[in-house]
Design goal:
Blueprint: H1 2-23, H2 40-60, H3 65-97, E1 110-115, E2 123-129, E3 132-140, E4 151-158, E5 161-166, H4 167-174
Parallel strand pairs: 3-5
Antiparallel strand pairs: 1-2, 1-4, 2-3, 4-5
Helix pairs in contact: 1-2, 2-3
């Protein structure tokens, strides 16, 4: 019976590990570098190690169920503690150090040409961000002219100038209907 329980806990830990890889790590709040002690990655590691240890000990020894539980729990707690140390000591501080490049804040944002972009001379675009309509000077990425009213996508805004590309060109590259 203990071998089946160990397998169930092992599979649960593996599933929780996959979910945590997809979902990421819980933090107490935005900008808060602390990590919840009971988070999904820590549970996943603890459950997986519990199952990995409990199964062979239960199957290949004559130890009592209580002894198997104590050994497997000790291994699971040690693995969970190690995982928490990795998250709190490396993963969260590394993510907190990441500097966001402000030039790319509006990357991928849709807009429209409000003053034609003429080859070497710039034009102007209009786009909405956070419910606020903004107009900024613009240039095309490839230096080609872009006509008034053309739908565009912002690549970056650098020194107050938006560098844009036609939506139809990007849609072709993505093989999406324009």
């Amino acid at each position: 019976m203990m071998t089946y329980a160990a397998l169930v806990v092992l599979v649960t830990g593996l599933i929780a590990g996959v979910v945590s890889m997809v979902g990421g790590i819980d933090q107490l709040g935005r900008g808060d570098a602390r990590v919840r002690y009971l988070n999904l990655p820590t549970f996943a590691v603890a459950a997986t190690v519990f199952g990995i240890v409990a199964y062979p000990v239960a199957k290949y020894t004559s130890l009592s169920t209580a002894s198997v539980l104590v050994i497997a729990l000790a291994a699971g707690v040690a693995a969970g503690s190690a995982m928490l140390g990795v998250i709190a000591g490396w993963a969260v501080p590394s993510a907190a150090k990441e500097v966001k490049d402000e030039r790319y804040t509006h990357q991928g944002q849709f807009g429209r040409i409000t003053r034609a972009i003429d080859g070497g001379a710039g034009g102007e675009i209009e786009f909405s961000a956070d419910g606020i309509v903004q107009r900024v000077p613009a240039r095309s990425l490839d230096g080609a002219p872009i006509e008034l009213g053309t739908e565009i996508v912002i690549e970056r805004i650098e020194d107050g100038v938006a560098y844009v590309e036609r939506w139809t060109k990007i849609a072709r590259q993505l093989e999406l209907p324009a």
